[in-house]
Structure formats: structure tokens, C-alpha cells
Amino acid sequence: MKDFFFVKIALFIAFYTSITFGFTSLDFVLPDLEIKIGRDCFRYSGNFCLLRFYSEAMVSMRPSPNTSDIRVMEKIARDTHKMINWYSFNSYQGCCSYQILTYLKFGQNFGYSPEHYLSKLTDFSSVGKSLNYIVVRRYPYNCANVISYISFGDRSVLKIYSNGRDVTNDIFTLPLNPNQEIFVFNGTAQLLSYLTFDWFKLYVMCIEQPWICDSFPIKTTD
Q: Is residue 36 one of the residues assigned to a domain?
């Protein structure tokens, strides 16, 4: 009987850990005209498109999915998608099929209400947002790696998806922005040092959505 009690306690701890802890991130696509999703993004923004709040963490044991979740999420998406560059590339005026499907997959499935998912999606503070993965393509004229996707989350190990190429010491760059600015990073060490979420906010997101830096100030150093 005592052993059974301890097993129940162990199972509870394991279950609680799986609910409380798990990888989360904010994922973005950049307007890279050489790939389809980049061109889709460019139709709405020359700077960035927010893809999703990604979660592997079960945050609550909500009862069976609330029948109002889809309706509530659609209203939330209509009200906010232009403010945060969260677009549905296959929907009229950029809303709302993709937003709903993204919420169902990465929100409702993990116990997030629509309102809770929105709070995570619009949490642009820098806490817990390390550069954790990028997807790059080779630019043939100068051998630079153009960053097409970028993700910031609570996993500090950087993963680079480069079609199997070793790009450790290569040059990285972001797609040309509407101001015709080019940002270049020499190797992964410089990428990790400079391409922080604060940097991304300052030079990419807040150019188009200045309210983000007003609401989530950039950390400054003397």
C-alpha cells in the first residue's frame, strides 16, 4: 500500500512537471522574396510576419475544448492581427483561418484559452527569448546565408537549418528591408552576440510597429 502511495506521488510529480515545464517560443518569417512564404509575408509587410507562439508545455487541464474557442479566437485575430503582423496568407485581408488553426494546434491542445494564447503571442518582453533557431538559404552571389525564419524562445542552444551545410563561420544576413538596409553577421558567434530579441525588436519589429518598443522597452547598456 505504501509503495502504491509513492508511485502515485511520483506520477503526480511527473505529470505536474510535464504541465509546468516545456519549450516555448515566438516564431517569425521574414519577407524573403526567394521563397514562397517569404513572398506571402511581403504582401503584408516588408519587415516581418509573426507566425505563432509555439508551445510544448501543457499549461492547464481545461475541460473538453470549449465550443466558443473558435469564435472567440476569430474575434481576437480580427482585432489584433494587423497590430502584430500575424497574417493568414490564404485568407481574405489576412484573417483568420491560419490564426484559428494555429491556436487550435499550439494553444487549445495545450490547455490555453484564446485569451491566454493571445497574451503569450503578444508578450514581446525579452525574458526567456534566446535565439534558438534560424532557417537559412544560400545567396549564390556572395555566399551569404539569408535568414528566412527566426525563432526566439526559452531554449538557449541555437539550431541552424541550412540544408546540411556547415555554416559556423559563414556570413549571415537578413532580407533587405524597406529602408534598403543590410544587416550582416560574421559567423554564428557574432550571430549569437548581436541577434538578440532586443536587437530584433529595435531593428525589425519596431520599425513598423513602434508600439512594441514603447510597451516592451529595449534594455540599454551604459
A: yes
